[in-house]
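[job 4471] stage=fold_predict status=RUNNING
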Amino acid sequence: MKKFILAMTMPALFLLVSCDKEKVVNNDDLPAAATSFITTHYPAQAIRQVVKERDDLKTEYKVYLDNNTKLDFNKDGDIKEIEGTERIPDAILSSLIVTYVNDNYAPAFIRGWDPGSTNQEVKLSSGIELLFDNNGNFLRIDD
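[job 4471] inference complete, writing structure tokens
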């Protein structure tokens, strides 16, 4: 009977521990690097909300700005993704990416950016998604 109870309790405990945990936190709880990123690149925007998300051993911060831009940061405050409806500041992106988009897709602008470990995806205001390598070289249109 003890083995049965243990066998039933362990999976339930595992599921409870591994569940995502989201919590609204104060702006002061953001890592310093994230705060610096926001004040440097979005000085005119106020932070509307900060959500701290814990998933297993990973902690991330989702920051929502007044202009409906969402910024995702890792636990160290490094930017992981930007998504919104307005133009992403050019200084955030590789100059190769900015030049490529301006030369080939004007008047569309970059409204989303997802820097992965091997490539970078940008979302344009026209709805097109483009894939670049980590050096900023165009790879393809992403479906």
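[job 4471] summary: The helical segments are 2-18, 32-41, 95-105.
[job 4471] exit 0
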